[in-house]
Sequence to fold (568 residues):
Amino acid sequence: MEALALSLVNAVPLLAGVPLWAVTLLLIVAAAAVILVFALTFEGVGSFVLRKVAGDIQARIGPNRVGPNGILQFVADGVKLVLKEDIIPANADRLLFKLAPYFVFVGSFAAFVVVPFGVGLIAADLNIGIYYVMAVTSLVVIGVLLAGWASNNKWALLGGMRAAAQIVSYEIPVGMALIPAVLIAGSLSLQDIVHSQGGLLGIFGWNLFHNPFSFFSFFLYFTAAQAETNQTPFDLPEAESELVSGYNVEYSGIRFGLFFLAEFGDMFIVAALSTACFLGGWNVPFFHAGTLPWIWGNLLSLGVFLAKAFTMVLIMMWVRWTLPRLRVDQLMRMSWKYLVPLTFVNLLGVSLWLLVFKGKGIPGMVASLFG
Amino acid sequence: MGLKAYLNDIVEAVVTTAKGMRITARYGVDPKEEVTLQYPEERWEIPQGYRGFLHNDIKTCTACTMCVKVCPIDCISLESVRGADKKMVLASYDINIGRCMYCGLCVEVCPPKSLKHTSGYEMASVTRGELILNFIAEDAAEIKARVARQVAEATAKAEAQAAAKAEAQAAAKAEAQAVAKAAEVPSSGTAEGEKKE
Fold:
């Protein structure tokens, strides 16, 4: 950010008198605002698309009253959430009750910081990108557990407990399934991981096709990540039919809205991470977007990245409306007896592959055969 | 659990998920699967023999009270008086449609087929009283009074006619008697005998 601020100050003579820290701060705020606006827009449109997809799959129409074809439904929902009374139960722990949504919201949104949207479109290219995402999304557990505890409601408490158990269990397979991408790139930075998948191989440069283990790794990550972010069919913490709405049952108005936004934020983070780590990220097939003029390269790579990420989101919705909810014991068995061993086997497989073939993938080897 | 069963579980999970997703995708893509009827704008075609709200054509109704007797929940009530022409005249005919269970017995039993089911099914009201259908707008007391007046008029007329007739007959008789008297004064016995016959 400071380097960007320095170049901006150098480029625009008007800013010469302004101190560098002020420009940097301004840029940071601007970047945060852009990401927040993007996330909020995604959540709004995402909730509308989710309901439309649900309608299509369940042979219904879905929302179609507000605006043409119901497209303004999310605006109406948002206005409703903001205007609703913010109720705090009489016996709730007021401080924790108020605090909990922010933890969840921050945990979900902080991950947007390292999402590589394009060649240069990344808020902060941390050299511990994936590690940062794993760490910061763990904040959601605290928020959810706090919400469940502070509500002083048995359903909320059960939901919170379930969420904690689930998220902590599934963090292991999620991390283990992401490590193959880290191993192949040799870096934790998401930008480096995306770079490692570029080149002239097109879609065969993706980590998905690097070797059989990384192929399975993608599906394992996708499954585990859905469970980690409490998406249906792993939405036990919310389980409407048994826990009413789980940890957020006592929340209303804007505080409920924050939980809701965080859920969609998580959805996008999962889609973005699987895109960046396995599906080639913003790489435009067959040429490097970085060689284009800055604005066009970024626009093109942003379009490619968003297309991939939104496709993943759509697939998540598709899964969501297909599978019924798991039982608690089934959920735990799936994590500890299936996903964890499989991800470890995968990790071992990828490591051995990289060791034996000197870091080359199958498409790379095939390409080198033909020169 | 052996390794084979373990791997089998994994394969089964993948296969069943794929199967389910194929089905949902088919529903999601095919617009013809849509079953939603956007009610106030679109409506079902009412099938034949649909038992909607009841309607009584009071012009053909004979006030036979069959419907009242057959109704299992007593939601039909009627008042009637005997009119001047000896036929029953309806004073009021009410159906409490809020209570009606649309069994259709009253329609089946109606001899002049004046009571029928319509295709109507939409009704909303603030009070339960609004759900009572009044098929005769006029006040029952007024109708009764009017019919009573008509009946009274008719009977008066009939009486007057009868009286006139009787008078005429009496006059005719008297005349005949006078004539007979004048003709056969002596033989009054025979005249009496004739009269007896």
Q: What stands out?
A: Chain A has 14 helices and no strands.
